[in-house]
Amino acid sequence: MNHRFRPALAVVSAVAATFALAAAAPAFAGKTLDAVKARGTVKCGVTNGVAGFSAPDTQGNWSGLDVDTCRAIAAAVLGDGKKVDFVPLNSQQRFAALQAGEIDILARNTTWNLTRDASLGFNFTTINYYDGQGFLVPKKIKVTSAKQLKGATICTQSGTTNEKNVADWSKANNIPVKTVVFESFEASFKAFFAGRCQAFTTDASALAGLRNKEATNPDDYVILPELISKEPLAPAVRRGDDEWFAIVKWVPNALIEAEEAGITQENIDALKATSKDPAQQRLVGSGDDLGKLLGLDKDWSYRAIKAVGNYGEMFERNVGPKSVLKLPRGANNLWNKGGLLYALPVK
């Protein structure tokens, strides 16, 4: 080896060592994490009631995909998935509540788009449902395609992406429609089922829930096949607290990777005791300690998975075949099973 290259190599090695030490350094607790620990609960902004995502039963017990996301974060941070204060918010309230610090997480069927990402002071974390906007119509009007809605009145909620999406779709396809908007979600769908509009539009997952829950006879209604938008739904947090952002980003990723790795709510304890697979060990808490990089302990992901199961279990229970919605996995399947879900590596 030519000795004149040794000083340069020494500098490179020193820089590499510095980065390695930085990567292994524990994270500082952010102000939101400190506040959550002091309060003893995670404040999670949710819907007033959308089946499959966040809705209370008659006893006030919340369930849904977004609810489980919040419970997983509470389990990772506080050791108990039940330590969540669910704050019901309508579409107009949700962003102001997060901006004002009234909630720690917004997990409320909220679409991640450029305008919201760049202008509201939020960071979106991890997409937990790939949706798209569709139309619900009564079978009696004999419409089988959105292309047949020319001149139709369409009910929807104001202050959502749904209203703008209909306007864009109408203009792009030269299908004039009359949009009737309502301030609340409940008012908008009740007007539709009362016959005020010929169609109702919102995310296709919500349409399935409304048809099953609100219609006197669900078989009298059909969801048209076309989707007119992309609606990637994701939790959001306030900007300015990178430590909390990291936690709310990595907990859902751990749930997705748990499904990839074959870890379930039922087998996680056995895998914690016996698994020799490094990927499984990191998730069940018997391998590398990644929690210190998040300001958490080694069992953060174990507790999250134990509380709600992996992503596939959450999906089936809340919106999939085992739920009242009975939605197919579709785009929400794992990337190696024909879907779009691809967990960032927990390593």
UniProtKB/TrEMBL annotation:
Keywords: Signal, Transport
A Pfam entry, by short name: SBP_bac_3
Record-linked CDD domains: PBP2_BztA
Keyword Transferase tagged: no
InterPro entries: Bact_solute-bind_prot3 (IPR051455), Solute-binding_3/MltF_N (IPR001638)
Signal peptide annotation: 1-29
Family: Belongs to the bacterial solute-binding protein 3 family.
Listed name of the protein: Amino acid ABC transporter substrate-binding protein
Organism: Variovorax robiniae
